[in-house]
Amino acid sequence: ATERTLSIIKPDAVAKNAIGEIIARFEKAGLKVVAAKMMHLSEEKAGGFYAEHKERPFFKDLVGFMTSGPVVVQVLEGEGAIAKNRELMGATNPKEAAPGTIRADFAETIDANAVHGSDSPESAEREISYFFGNDEICPR
Ligand code: CMP
After folding, report:
1. Measured from the CA of 113, which atom of ligand 1 is nearest?
2. Ligand 1 atom with the shortest distance to the CA of 61
3. Closest residue (by CA) to atom 11 of ligand 1?
4. What SS3 string covers 60-80?
5. Active-site residue among 116, 128, 131, 132?
6. Rounded to the nearest whole angstrom, what is the distance from the C-alpha of residue 113 to the centroid of ligand 1?
7. Is 109 annotated as a binding residue?
8. What DSSP string describes the chain?
9. Which long-range contacts (CB under 8 A, 24 or more apart) does 108-113 make?
10. Considering only CA atoms, which residue is closest to atom 1 of ligand 1?
11. Interval between CA 137 and ligand 1 midpoint (Å)
12. For residue range 31-85, what is the model confidence (pLDDT) as tens digits?
């Protein structure tokens, strides 16, 4: 089925000037960008986004990293978009990411891991509405 997923190009990948290369991978895989914006997240916005990780030992570092520079937040649309995006990204830890995936090619550490992608239809819905109003999404 056609799905939507939330993608974030994280501060490390923005700093590497890799926005275009990463979006090109989504487009070449048949995913369409139906919403996009660049933002510098506040601690509150980043912490709320990752609220499910609040009790994890890496939470503070994660929020620190995600607020360290601008990010590009996008909604990707396509057949099986959630799984397709996760395949393109590779494993969360870049050291375990399969060759040719975004994290294998652009990421260094588990925190600075280049991209985020929704992990289920439920989180996709929550994450998309966390960043975008309906009037900011452009069906195409
Ligand atoms: P992301 O998909 O954005 O979701 C949560 C992020 O926490 C994850 O990518 C990693 O960048 C970061 N993180 C840091 N340490 C861990 C860990 N031990 N397990 C999972 N995620 C971690």
Report:
1. 11
2. 14
3. 111
4. HHHHHHHCCCCEEEEEEEEEC
5. 116
6. 8
7. no
8. -EEEEEEEE-HHHHHTT-HHHHHHHHHHTT-EEEEEEEE---HHHHHHHTGGGTTSTTHHHHHHHHTSS-EEEEEEEEETHHHHHHHHH--SSGGGSPTTSHHHHH--SSSS-SEEE--SHHHHHHHHHHH--GGG----
9. 108/12, 110/58, 111/58, 111/61, 111/62, 111/65, 112/10, 112/11, 112/12, 112/65, 113/10, 113/12
10. 116
11. 27
12. 999 999 999 999 999 999 999 999 999 999 999 999 999 999 999 999 999 999 9
Pocket residue to mutate for ligand 1, from 5, 10, 53, 58, most atoms within 8 A of Cβ: 58
Is there an atom of ligand 1 within 6 Å of 113 CB?
Answer: yes
Total-model pTM: 0.98
Q: Are 61 and 113 in contact (CB under 8 A)?
A: no
Any catalytic annotation for residue 53?
no
Quick count: other Cβ atoms within 10 Å of Cβ 74?
26
